[in-house]
């Protein structure tokens, strides 16, 4: 028997809020039903949650296999799959990454198999600033004229971890090739229902395969400006207890700044892999 959930739209056909569910106690059947809602809506919100790290991991596993994090200095003790986003200081050190999530992007696009979805659980949030914005890449593609869709469909984009490191001004050894450049389609079909997304990102792109630069980079910049127009963007204003999950296969996101000298932001992030892609 199908489980009926109380589902409400977040923004004009994009995103969904599920109400009346306590993720800490509801069990795996409700978890699976919530995941089904997620696959259809791009962004998923559940408010008023109180989760231990273990309970967040249990909900995360309902989506797929949790991914670990390279930067272990900011992972939760004993649970490397939880990455701490925080400006809190304990014992003289900041316990989390203060600036993660700035700039329009989709997570880990520099990997051959990027993370399917990202989950944030907010325990402390600033009263102003620190919003998260989402661009609906499905709506953006659907709004293009058919001839423009046809011209973009089939193009391939080169994504590069090294490009991201250069942008962040991070030190990378000359021979460090842990993440070789990868190629992803510019127009991506969602594996659940086939809806197509204009899958652009910033920070990791080197250009379009078979198209010389600067022409390729200019096209990507044009498309980034297009998909992040206000008509395609949903702004999430955080409350403590929010659990927010978004689908990296069909959205872009970015964080907005806040006054770190006045306010505290403390959030636990998990990434989930697409087990169907990996044959698990």
Written overview of the protein:
The chain is of the alpha+beta class. It folds into 2 domains: 6-135 and 232-278, Double-stranded beta-helix (4-Layer Sandwich), CATH 3.60.130; 138-227, no CATH class. The chain has helices at residues 28-41, 53-61, 137-142, 146-152, 161-167, 215-227, 275-278; strands spanning 6-11, 14-19, 43-46, 66-67, 75-76, 79-86, 89-90, 93-94, 117-124, 132-136, 156-159, 182-185, 187-189, 196-198, 205-208, 233-236, 243-247, 251-255, 266-272. Strands 1, 2, 3, 4, 5, 6, 9, 17 and 19 form a 9-stranded mixed sheet that branches. It has a 3-stranded antiparallel sheet with strand order 16-10-18.
Helicity range of the residues?
10-25%
Shape descriptor reads globular
Percent of residues in beta strands? Answer: 25-35%
Class based on secondary structure composition and strand pairing = alpha+beta
- Low-pLDDT runs of 5+ residues are none
Task: Give the SSE order as H and E letters.
Answer: EEHEHEEEEEEEHHEHEEEEHEEEEH
Largest beta sheet, briefly? 9 strands, mixed
Which architecture of the largest domain per CATH?
4-Layer Sandwich
Alpha carbon gyration radius: 19 Å
CATH class of the largest domain: Alpha Beta
Query: What do we call the CATH topology of the largest domain?
Result: Double-stranded beta-helix
